[in-house]
Amino acid sequence: MKILIMGGTQFVSKSIAMQMIDNGHEVDIFTRGVQKVDYSGINRHIKGDRKSLECLQMIGDKNYDVIIDVSAYTKEDVQFLLKHVDIEKLKKYIFISSGAVYCESQEVIHEEQCRGENKNWGTYGLNKKKAEDFLFHMSEENGIPVTIFRPTYIYGKGNNLYREKYFFDRIEDGMAIPIPIKIDDNGRKNEVLTQFIYIDDMVKIIESCIGNEKSNGQAYNITHPDRVSWRKLIQTTSDVINKEAHIIEANNVALDIQDREFFPFRNVTYMLSIEKLIRDGLYVPKIELTDGLKLALEDYNRNFHACLDKRMNKIEYVIEKASTS
Question: Which of 57, 224, 249, 253 has the greatest number of C-beta atoms within 10 Å?
Answer without folding.
Answer: 224
